[in-house]
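Predict fold of Putative mfs drug efflux protein; 520 aa.
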Amino acid sequence: MADPTSEKLTESSAASAMSLNRSIKRKHKSNNRECPPVRDITGWRWALVVAAILSSTFLFALDNTIVADVQADIVVTFNDVSKLSWLSVGFLIGAASTNLVWGKIYGQFNAKWTYIISIVIFEAGSALCGGAPNMPALIVGRALCGFGGSGTYVGVMTLLAASTTIHERPLYIGGTGMTWGLGTVIGPIIGGAFTDSSAGWRWAFYINLCIGAACAPVYLFLLPNYDPRPGVPLLHRAKEVDYLGGIIIIGAFVSGVMAVSFGGVTYPWNSGKIIGLFVCSGILFIIFGIQQVFTIFTTTSRRIFPIEFLQSRTMLILFAVTSAGGTAIFIPIYMIPIFFQFTRNDSALEAGVRLLPFIFLMIFAVISNGAILSAYGYYMPWYTAGGVLVLIGGSLMFADVTPIPLLPKSMASPSLSAVVAEELVSSAVGFITCAQVGGVTIALAIANSVFLNGSQEKIQAILPDLPAAEIQQQKEVIQAIVESMSKTYAMVITAGALTVVLSLLMKREKLFMSAAMGGA
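Predicted 3D structure, encoded as tokens:
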């Protein structure tokens, strides 16, 4: 099975990171709204910059799923299967727990050099994974990859928001969805290809170093310099970081991710370890909320969580539909290949190829969304139409429980891109990315648990004491697996229904007109 992710990281959800919050803009009017940011570089140099920064999104998504087909070889290499689940959990911990932290860091420090630092962390993690002498080192490398990858993703969104006009931005932000979807699907294929070749599984991680080295000159010499606080000394900025809030929120996410990842799979949901992790996570989230609301050892401007977004209907709706969009996209992406591997005995490559129609439709929707939004500006209809399609597609996949060829029938709602007040852009990126990565992480963990627990119960009922090799029993086992898999699509149905309902609560506004007017 493919590794669940961080990652966060959904096509439609990615674009939502910059979505408009008109109620916030009323409080943060700025003349900059009338003068969209204009980049210093154009032409082929700008094309190189876009390609280079989108490559980091591709690698982040790739690293999320590439271990799917190398896990068996890793177990053979280290002769340690007990820690195998940590390969995915370590990555998720690094990715899901640091989005808000990265968002605040990008709001404090130079975006170019913060982005480069996150690239270095990601590449260092990849190098450690590739050269790992044992399983613990590999797990640490995976955590570093998740941590650095989360920083690169927030950085890409921040840099694109700072370097594009409000009319062209949807096309560029939509590109993150395209590269994310591509990396997610290609990950297992590339991992399987390295495993089957003489290169071996270590090159599934070393490949990140090669691509990073190729893009390094672009990062160093062409990447635009965007400083959110020009003239403020570096030491002064460092003193203003909300370190206490960062530590608490990371601890809350770490224990929460471990609980949803191990619950029902490694340990029963009612085991003391899982209950303890949930309790620990809940307590830390409560402490974090108190610390942020009452600005304990921090200030209103320094706190990590953008409390003001909780007062905005638009941002709360975007947070929810971003999580729903990630659920609608990633559950089929992970479950469809498993379906074909069980029912048609497909290899990882063959199962990945069967996903291409799904991905092509998704990419087409993202590009169309960006182009049409740039021309007309209305975003609410996209969420309504997309939610309806997800609802229909999820229902069809839920009802189709026979082992026959399955075409991807659902697509998530294409997302939209605009800007909040300039000083809140980085916080908005972290806020929405948190919804994306966190939503996908929880959804996939629950789907994984439903699938594994359901299939195990059915198989034990079918084969209590008999060998599984008999043909009739094989058919029954496959049927049991497919039926258990179909239950995971109930979450897709829920995501579609939630998106439709919430889209009807969205404002019927034209993004670019309201942005030009500075909010109304």
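The chain has one domain: 11-227+234-242+304-517.
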